[in-house]
Amino acid sequence: MTSKTQALFILSLITLWYASNIGVLLLNKFLLSNYGFRFPIFLTMCHMSACAVLSYISIVLLKIVPLQRIKSRSQFLRIATLSTVFCGSVVGGNISLRYLPVSFNQAVGATTPFFTALFAYFMTLKREAWVTYGALVPVVAGVVIASGGEPSFHLYGFIMCISATAARAFKSVLQGILLSSEG
Hints:
With 183 residues, this protein is mainly α. The chain has a domain at 70-183. It is 80% helix and 0% strand. The protein has seven helices and no strands. Pfam families: TPT.
């Protein structure tokens, strides 16, 4: 593959990733709020099942990446832990979409780096540069201000949105810890 073809392929993958994420987010919002679908956990199950089936097709049938077998109980437990945290973040996000507008949901999601820095500090004692923490202050302050002025604010939806955002950040830090060691 030439470098130009490879760059085009990578750009296509990134575009498809963004498009699918935006599509799933808007579809979930439409189903949960506008259409009146009242089962966000079932919707998450459908999402996870579709991801599993498409991953299987991509790995086993299309052979996009090589199949990797789980080699130990420890490795299985690490993968299961990450999967559980990820699933919890998706459930929380879907529940919050039932009560909050997409724009507010995404604004709260912008605090993910704040939670990532917080969890990284408490779990690994890794400190970021003060400039990094300083850059997070306006983001968090903006979300606090937006929360106070949001006309469609719903406390339960907000709690679920913050929980989903924190779970995404927790998964990132946990992923770094669990997948960096041997096995």
